[in-house]
Amino acid sequence: MYLVTFRLDPGEYDAEFHELNDAIRAAAEGTDGYLGQRTWNDPEGDEVLVVYYWETLIALESFAADSDHERAKARWNEWYDAYEVTVTEVIETYGSGFGDDADPPG
């Protein structure tokens, strides 16, 4: 499994951002190998973390090539003050479990 952590400092969102964001979400959800996502908001600031779960690196790369996703990446500075993406290969997970909230989501 692969996790993609998208850390962002939001800026100003406009209607075009929301339209593109919805298209990207639909593309991710329609990609074979997409397992879900989780979002966390910093209670003391504006920072947001979104973690996307992917079954394989091939699935992730397929999504990354989506044309709407490519357009959004090229325009990040219109909507975010800063961002960082970290791609992680999961070697092992363990713990007591979270029931219906267990990772990966879904």
UniProtKB/TrEMBL annotation:
It holds the Pfam family Monooxy_af470-like. Its EC number is 1.14.-.-. The keyword Nucleotidyltransferase does not apply. Keywords: Monooxygenase, Oxidoreductase. Gene3D superfamilies: 3.30.70.100. It comes from the Archaea. This is Antibiotic biosynthesis monooxygenase family protein. It comes from Halorubrum glutamatedens.
